[in-house]
Structures are given as C-alpha cells and as structure tokens.
Design brief:
CBS-domain
C-alpha cells in the first residue's frame, strides 16, 4: 500500500486572516463558515496564530460591544502538520491532544487543516486496501485524562468485515 500522507486527507477549507482584522469581522466569518477556528497569517501567508471558536466566545462575554483586532486574542500555534507528514503522525497527534483540528502547512504557509472527520473519512475509504494486521492506531488508544468511551478504555472492540464498522460491546 502506498504511504498515506496528510496532503491526501486534509481539507483546504480554512479561514486565514491578518492579525489586524477586526474581531467582529472574523467572528462573523467563523460563524457563517461553521468551522471551529480562524488562522492568523502574516503578509507572506505564513501561519502565526490561531483563534479557536471558544476564544471568540470568551472575548464576547467580556466585551459585549468591544472592538479589537485578532492580534489581541490570537494564540501562538502549538501544533501543526506538514503536508508530507504520514497520516499516522496526524492520528497520534489528534488522539493525544484536545485539538479537534490542526493546521497543515507547506514551508510555513497555511495550505489547509486536518480534523478527525477528514481522517475518519479517509481511513474508511482506505479500509478495503488496509492489511488486516495493520494496527497503527493500537498505541494511540490510551487518552490519559481525556474521557474515552468504555470500548477504548478496555480495548474490547473488533472490526466487522461486512459493513466496515466497529462492533461495540453492550454495557
């Protein structure tokens, strides 16, 4: 099987704005897009920050009529993937972190984002081609402090060859 890269799973649908963009303009774009975050880029298009939806909510709760610029509420990017990273790295990263969506860069320039849905959709499409002995997710099932469904905590799950879905034990 050819090596699966992030570029084959990512979505190019993102919102990227200047740090000087007004917060209320960025917020309106975010809510209209139904995405979960806004990426902040410099004039060269390099990724310099992120503003998740919950930061807009925090800003709005404190500044009901306030104005400001994205630079005031953006956070530095703590994790990002390269378009040439293997999908296993992305799966591990998304399983170990609370982030549900990670920016994807090509030579520091924002080119897209990868979320859990992109990976699940991609893996579902690959499933007929995956060697049954392939268990690259096995080491990523322990989420530590993050709550996980019972079947992940116990490791008691199996794949159904018929539907390509997982069968879960009854509680």
């Amino acid at each position: 099987m050819p090596r699966s890269l992030v570029r084959n799973f990512m979505s190019s649908l993102t919102i990227s704005l200047s740090p000087e963009t007004r917060i209320d303009d960025a917020e309106n774009l975010l809510w209209e897009s139904q995405l979960s975050d806004v990426y902040v880029v410099n004039t060269e298009g390099s990724l310099i920050g992120v503003v998740p939806d919950y930061d807009f909510l925090k800003w709005r709760s404190i500044n009901l009529c306030g104005t400001g610029r994205l630079s005031a509420i953006m956070s530095p990017v703590s994790i990002a993937l390269s378009i040439d990273d293997p999908i296993e790295k992305a799966v591990s990263l998304l399983c170990k972190n609370i982030h549900s969506r990670v920016p994807v860069v090509d030579q520091k320039k924002l080119v897209g984002a990868l979320d859990r849905r992109c990976i699940a959709r991609g893996l579902n499409n690959l499933q007929p081609h995956i060697d049954p002995s392939c268990r690259f997710l096995e080491g990523n099932l322990n989420h530590g402090a993050i709550a996980a469904p019972k079947f992940l905590q116990t490791g008691n799950f199996s794949r159904s060859k018929d539907a390509g879905s997982q069968k879960f034990p009854s509680s």
